[in-house]
Amino acid sequence: MRCFRHVFFICIVMTLFSLVYVLDHFASTVEDRGRWREQSRAALRRHDSGLPLRKTRGSGGQHGELHRCKSVSYWSPYWRLPADVCGVNCFMETSYGEGLTKEAPDEQSHLAVVACGPRLEETLTMLKSALLFSKKPLHLYIFAENELHGSFKNAVSTMHLIKFNFTIFPITFPNDNEKEWKKLFKPCASQRLFLPLILQDVDSLLYVDTDILFLQPVEDLWTLLSHFNSSQLAAMAPEHEEPRIGWYNRFARHPYYGRTGINSGVMLMNMTRIRAKYFKNDMTTIPLRWEEMLMPLLQKYKLNITWGDQDLLNIIFHHNPESLFVFPCEWNYRPDHCIYGSNCHTADQQGVFILHGNRGVFHDDKQPAFRAVYNAIQKYQFGEDLDKFLLDPLEGSLSSTTHTYCGRSSHLFTKRLKQSILSLQQEVPHRR
C-alpha cells in the first residue's frame, strides 16, 4: 500500500511539472505577441528613414509602387510582409493572354517554394516544370536566402511561356528561436510552417519542396481544394503505401498521422482555415491557434523527431485527423513507391503526376530513372519542340534504366507527361 501511495504521489508531481511547463510556454507565446507587434511597427517606421528605393514593374509594363530593398529580421504571428518591403515583385509579360488582373481569383494558382544553400538549379528546374505544363496563370512565392535573390530574379525572368507573377521573399523566422528553426532537418525547410502567418493576404497555397517535378499542370492539383469538406484545411500524400517498409510505423518516437504518416513535400493548404482554426494538441487541454502551437510543439518533441517540420505536421494532424485531406500517391511519387517493386497502385493506372526526388536521387546514380527525368527537364529550353527535345531524349535515357525496379516502372513517368504535352500542343500549337 505504501508503494502504491509513493507511485501515485510521483505521478501527481510529474503531472503538475508537465502542466507548468506547457503553461509557461503558452504564456511566453502570448506575451511575445505584443513584443513582435511592436517590433513590426518599429521596423515599419524605420522604412521611412531614407533607405534606398528600387522601382518595380507593375502590370501593363508601368512602374508600380516603390519597393524598398531591405531584409526583414523581425517576425510576428500576425505579421505579413508590407507591400513596400523586401519582396521582389515582378509581373511577367508574354505573348499569351491578357494581364492576371483580369483573371477570376480562382483561375490563378499560388505556388510556394523555399530554397537555401545549393538549391538554386534544382529549384529553377522545378519552377520550369510548373510553368512548362500549366495553362492557367500562376503566382510564384520564392523564399530564399538574400544572396540567391538576384539569381532567382534573373533566371525566372527568362521563363516566358505563360503570364505569371513571382515574388521573392527573405527567409524569416521568429527572432528568439531563429537558429533552431532554420537548422531543423534541412536548412530553411521549416519555413513552410510559417507561410500561413507570413502570407496573410493569400487564401490558399500549394507548397512544394525544391526536389519536385510537375508532369501535369499545377492547376490540376489546385482543383483538389474544391474537394475539401468543411473541416479540411490541408492536403498531403501518405508517407508510404506499404506498411512493411514504412518509416513512421516502425521507427517514429512521436505521434503521426494514420497508418504510415504523411509526406509534406507536396502540401496544399487553405491558409484562411489554418489561421482561423484552434487545434487539438497533447500539450494542453486548451485548443491552440497555429502560431501558439508551433514553438511549444518543437520544444516538446525536438529530441524525438527525425524529419523536422514534417514530423511536426504529422503530430499536428495525428491530433486533428478531420482537418487533413489525403490525396493519392501519384501526386507525390517517390523512390519508395518503386524501389522494391511498384506499390503506388493508382499511379500504375493513371501514371505519375508529380515526381519527388527525395534523398538526392535527382543528382546521384542510385535511381537513374529519376535522374533521367530531372536532366531532361533541366536541359529543355522554352520554345523548343516538346517531342523532339524533351520526350524523345527522355525515353532514350529511361530505356537504359530497366536494370532497376524504378526503371522498370519508368513508363509511368512518361504516361502522364505524354498527355500533358499532347494537351499543350492541341490548345496552344505554337508552344511546341
Automatic annotation (TrEMBL):
The keyword Transmembrane helix applies. The chain crosses the membrane at residues 7-23. Its main location: membrane. It catalyses: 3-O-(beta-D-glucosyl)-L-seryl-[EGF-like domain protein] + UDP-alpha-D-xylose = 3-O-[alpha-D-xylosyl-(1->3)-beta-D-glucosyl]-L-seryl-[EGF-like domain protein] + UDP + H(+). It is a single-pass type II membrane protein. GO terms for cellular component: membrane. Coiled coil: none annotated. Its EC number is 2.4.2.42. The keyword Glycosyltransferase applies. It holds the Pfam family Glyco_transf_8. One of its GO terms (biological process) is protein O-linked glycosylation via N-acetyl-galactosamine. Belongs to the glycosyltransferase 8 family. PANTHER family: GLUCOSIDE XYLOSYLTRANSFERASE 1, IP22168P. This is Glucoside xylosyltransferase 1. It comes from Periophthalmus magnuspinnatus.
